[in-house]
Amino acid sequence: MTELHVAHAGPTDPDHPVVLWVHGLDSDGHCWDRPIALVAARTECASVDLPGHGESPIPAGEAAYERAAVLDDIDAVIAGLRADNVDRLIVWVGHSLGGYLGMAHVLTRSDPAKAVNGLVLVSAGPGFRDPDAMQRWNDRVRKNSPAYSVSRDASTIAFHSDSMVMDGLGELGLPISLVIGDGDRAFLGANDYLEKKLPHATRITVEGARHFVMKSHPEAVADGVELVLGELD
Fold first, then answer.
1. What's 177's domain CATH number?
2. In terms of Cα–Cα distance, which of 40, 54, 68, 52 is closest to 6?
C-alpha cells in the first residue's frame, strides 16, 4: 500500500460533498490548481498525487503501479474523506489516466463506504478492447518513459491489461460530465464513444482547448464539476 499525498482546499464540512481530484501520467495534483481555486470557493477539494508522482512515495517495482494497487491506495484517501461521515458524497474528477481510474473505481467498488457518487471525466477515455491497440499504447508509454519526470516503474501506471472499463460502461449510472478540448485529437474519438455509451452524461466541448484543458480553460472544468454536484443535491 502506498500512502498518497493529499492536498486540501476549501471549506471543511463532513456533511457536505467533497471533490476528489486525480491527475494523469507524469503530472501531479497541482495540475488542478486553477479549477480548484474556483470550486473550493464553496466546496471542499482534495487533490491526490498518484504513486511515484508529485509528493507521494516512489515505490520500486511495477506492482505498486498496477490498477488494482492504485485503486486500493485511493480507497484509503476516500476512507479519510469519510472519516467523520460514512455517507459523505464524493465527486471524482479525473484527467486522462485519472478519469480512466475513476471509471475503473466505480466498476469495482460496490461497497457504499468505498464508492464515489459522481464522475467528471476530463480528457479521458475508457481504454481499449483490441489487444493490438492496447499493446501499441503500452509500447508507446514504455518508449516515451525516459522523457517523463517520473521513474520508469511509475510510468507503467498508464499501462492497460484488459477491457474491463470499456466493457462495463453501461453500468455507470451515476451522474457524469465529460470535459474535452476540441483540439485534443487523441481523446476526441474516445469522448464521442463515451457520449454514445453514457447517454445520461453531459458533455462540455471546449473550443480552443487541448489535452490539459483544466490549465487553459479552468472554468469549463469547474462547470463540469458543478453540473455533477447539482445532480447530487
1. 3.40.50.1820
2. 54
